[in-house]
Design goal:
The complex is a heterodimer of chains A (about 240) and B (about 850). Chain A has about 240 residues and is of the alpha/beta class. Chain A has one domain: P-loop containing nucleotide triphosphate hydrolases (Rossmann fold, 3-Layer(aba) Sandwich). Chain A is about 35% helix and about 25% strand. With about 850 residues, chain B is α+β, with helices and mostly antiparallel strands. Among the domains of chain B are: about 70-245, no CATH class; about 530-700, no CATH class. In chain B, β7 (about 170-175) and β8 form a beta hairpin. The chains are: A alpha/beta (about 240), B alpha+beta (about 850).
Chain lengths: ~240, ~850
Amino acid sequence: MPIVETKGLTRVYGEGSNAVTALDAVDLAVEPGEFVAVMGPSGCGKSTLLNLIGGLDAPTSGSVVIDGRDIAHMSEAEVTALRRRRIGFVFQFFNLIPVLDAAENVALPLVLDGVKAAEAKATAIEWLARVGLQDLAGRKPDELSGGQQQRVAIARALVTDPALILADEPTGNLDSRSSDDIARLLKEVSVTWGRAILMVTHDPRIAAHADRIVFMRDGRVVDDTRIAGAQEARDAMEKVGLL
Amino acid sequence: MSAQVTLAIRYLKGRRLRTALTTLAIVFGVMLLFGLNGIIPAMVQSLQSSMIAASGQTDLVVTSASTGLFDAAVADRVGTVEGVEAATPVLRVPVALAPGRYPVGMLSIIGVDPATAGRVRPYPVAEGRFLSEEDAKQDLEGGEATKRPAVVLPASTASALGLEVGDTLEVPSARGVARLTVAGVLKMPTAPGNEEAYMALPVAQALLGSGDRVSEVDATVKAGVDRAEVTRAVQRALGSAYRIGGVEPDSSLFASIKLGGFIINMFGVFAIVMAGFIILNTFRTVVAERRHDIGMLRAIGASRHTIFGMFLTESLVQGVLGTALGIIAGWWVAKLAMAGVGVISSDLLHLSIGRPVFTPGTWVLAIGMGVGVTVLAALVPARAAASITPLEAMRPQAGDRYEKAATHRAWWGVAVIVLAVAGLLSRDTTLVGASSVVFLVGLALVTPALVRPVTDAFGRAIEAVFRREGGLAKANLTRNAGRAAVTASAMMVSVAVIIALLGTFTSVFDGFIGYIDKSMGADFLAVPSNLLLSTGTVGADAALVTAVKSTEGVGDVATLRVGRAAMGGTGLQVIGIDPVAYSKVASFEYSEGSSEAALARLGTDGAIMVNGIFAAQQGLRPGDTLRLETPAGPRNYTVVAVATDYLNAKLATAYVSQAELEREFGVTTDVAIMADARPGADRQAVRAALARTVRDYPQFALYDTREWRDLQVATFRQVYGAMYVMLFVLAVPSLLALLNTLAIGVLARTREIGMLRAIGSTRVQVRRMVIAESLLLASLGTALGMLSGVWLGYSMVDAMNAVGFKMPYYFPYDGLAIALVIGVVFGVLAALVPARQATKLDVVAALRYE
């Protein structure tokens, strides 16, 4: 069973003559452990798709089913709890809390879920070790490089053991070396730790690490290609005119 | 620790400067509220204990409903009531001792009946003896020590006066200085600063010139009898002219101290409300600044409740911290202020004040206001933060929504101002007071809409001085119109209150000087060294005024006498004058509708004049009938004028003829004497002769009226000085608001300032930009404050005139000048820390700042 499945997912902003269709009847399914990259030009609806799947925004029509439950039929509290336990977010600008150190940032979703502070911190440090930052657990975000901050954000996304990671341009604010590191880490998240990843990106080199690339244009899915390696990724991109 | 608490504490620690500035505002408010409230209860307690020191030790205390003296025979009537074991008459009057004669200024003269006093309460003797019936027969004139009347002192009083058994105690009396021999020392506790001297009742009555009258009857109830039942029986036997229970200190002085307490409370509440403004502003900014954090937290599963709780916890931590520090600072303020107030109270009221007293109410008020206002001020921003959806939080904020809301609020503000103006024009003091607050609230609502136009207007002037930076400063202010408006409102309220109070106080002082010139027209004055005629003053019997009249060179002479009455449960002093003699040497300041002709009517039956305060308290106008509780029972009087004399302008007072005062109040002693020199007489010689005449009456101080006027003006100047300090204190919260807003502005624009530095701005230019912004903000608040302050001050004076407190309106030129100085100085001062913060920013770090 897919971890997330959208059917006829549509989002229209504005009304009447000002109405803009950001997402137009998108059908998409992501299986457990699958690493899916979403690509397309600016304004094609990639981020809107991610926001709707993450329950940050409500669809105009269509459905988003996560773990077999349509989030349209869930209360705000249930959606919030779902985000806390089943979904991890990774943002382009890291979005770490500046006044908390790395371990506390990672532990935050657990603390919000009522886990005791000491237990949450221990789990957080384990995850920091898995992303290679065990020695930097006590540093504040402004004492870390961009790549390190994004690793902390990934650890935070994973700490509640979610089934799905939603990553919005996770390398958009990093240099190429750090971008490669993060891409490899995300691959490891899906392969080694079995999490499904839905990642929005503009960067073909990063998308090449995915198992599958979904191409979007004008709010619609125009191609959905399974890939194995950088060459197949390049071919798929050429096919839709992205390269 | 929960996520809310952890995040709240970390955010507070992470922004130390801002936390310190907002907490400082709370500290300041609580310090004023707590500290100043520690002084007033101490004064009230001293006054209370001086008036009711012994009342707790007997079962029943009977007093006159008029709060004045009454016939001693009432004790016999009480003694015959069933269930009463014993009753004894007591005359208890606080008396001001001759200045400098003893280390204490005030002493309660307590006349007791030696035959019955011991049956009502114990008088344990430590040394010597207690009073005997023989003492009641002693003549006050006794020359030799052995023949002098006896006085018995509690041990603490003896020690305070430095007297032992056998020594002589000198007290002012109606017949001149009275000398009494200390016959015994009692093992009785007295309240600190509440000294007592017991003597036989006839001796005390002769000493005070009170005839056969007493101030209370103390009684005990038979064992096993229901005290409440006996109380009711005594009340039935005596009628409504008497009160049964403790001695209730409801004098005008007590009311004045309570009023002082209320005003002081208002200062504290004002400072805390200003702190509320600052906190509201800070949290609004914090919410705007943390939108991304809020969005992220919501995205990773934080509920609205968690976000709301996080901001409330932050405010709670600041509230608790600020309140705790404020209480500590307040304790020190009270301790230091007590030293100053103690001197004034001892000099003017002859009231010794002990240590600051912090009642449970003060603790509750300080903690409630400190923590409560902080949390309340954070409530709206916290709710706003909780209502942000994760998606909204990730998007840039729309500016035009604020503009629309500001315009909407401004119309509400206009409506509120219109309502307030109607109240201000009502000429009713209560309504004017309430409308003043409403007016400022209305203006605060309008301010956001005024930010842009007023900033544009002042911006031109600022750009003239800060040519390169002025434009940027103006833009910085207008793009955060909400934050600027709250800060400007805080500044506006401070400035408006300062100008309004200065205008009102100056008008009041000018009015008082007018009273002096009219009512103190005589050449010489013999007045009590005590400030108040009806408290602690021993009058002089007819011998003194006769001696004054026969002093060489003295022409017309008039005297004032004083009795006590009550109206509607509130005490007042009743001054007795001889209308004919008084009009020859002095006059009154008459309110509208009254005239000199009214004075002549005082001689007629049932005519009374009332002063401005009393008229305002009771809503009295000429022609009204009022019912006074006098020592002789309830009496109806007709108000013939609302008029004020200087000596009694500060307390609720009524004026009757001296004949009426003698008839209804039994008062025949003079408490103030005014005398003119005969035309052509040598003024210096007359003064010297008068000095010899009053020498034996140390309760009176003799002045040449011109010299006395100068003394009063000098006292006013001193009060003025203290008032300027208080007004400066009122302005401090606005400085904190300004400082806070600028610091927040600099923090929020860190990246922008980094960019300015990167493209070539010098540190000096950045500093000048922050100063220009501060000056603009200060100008906005000061300009609005000046306009509203003048208007509020005028309304207050107008209302006071309307209720009979006649005074000229004084245009507050000095207030406006002070406001301008405050505006500029605070504008520059407030900018110093944020400007330093801005210029010290590391360019690279600032550009990377999130």
